[in-house]
Sequence to fold (140 residues):
Amino acid sequence: MGGAIMLLLAIENPTRVQALLGVSTAVTFDKPLTYTEDNVSTQAPTTNEYVTPKDFWDKKYQRCLMSDSIPVTQPVCLIHGMQDDTISYMTSVDLSKRLQSKHVDVVLRKEGQHRMSKREDLALLVQCLGNLLSLSNSKL
Fold:
């Protein structure tokens, strides 16, 4: 769900969000999304379903992220581990095709898992972040 939130923030704030870095990014979900009440409860859900604000699903998610083309024009780097057993790395490849940005990199780590938390994975993340920062600084 973090990937969906990242993209929605970029869509809603195109002048403030200069670049995007996604790790194991997913924008479609194979589990049902449930709604929270208008006032967020402090109780944890009793099921394994995702819980999201109703506004997120109704107004933003469906309109912006479920279409074939996603109106994100900022530079994007998507990092994904090919050993990810939570989200297929092909999700990042598919997402890259749907983004309107002309600068999209997809970096696949053959031994990487969902969290991309090994030392070499974190070094890759820092490297990609540096590349995105240099791109956004050159636009300023």
Observations:
- Helices lie at 2-12, 54-65, 90-98, 119-139.
- The longest strand covers residues 76-81.
- The chain has a mean pLDDT of 83.
